[in-house]
Amino acid sequence: MTYSFPPTFQWGTATAAYQIEGAIQADGRAPSVWDTFSTQAGTVLNGDTGAIACDHYHRYRDDIQLLADLGIQHYRFSVAWPRILPQGSGAVNSAGLAFYDKLVDGLLAQGITPHVTLFHWDSPQALEDRYGSWRSREMAKDFADYATVVVKALGDRVTHWMTLNEIFCFTHLGYGVNQIPPHAPGTVVSSLKDVWQTSHHALLAHGLGCQAIRAASPQTCTVSLVDNFLATIPTVETPENIAAAQTAFHTVGTNGGIIFPALTGEYSPALLEQLGDQAPDIAPGDLDTIRQPLDALGFNVYSGVYVRAAETPLGYEILPFPKGYPRLHMPWLHVVPESLYWGVRHVSTTLNQPQMPVFISENGCAAQDELTQQSEVLDLDRIHYLRQYLHAAHRAVVEGYPLQGYFLWSLMDNFEWAYGYDRRFGITYIDYPTQQRIPKASFYWYKQCIAANQIL
Question: What dotted CATH number matches 3-234+244-307+326-455?
Answer without folding.
Answer: 3.20.20.80
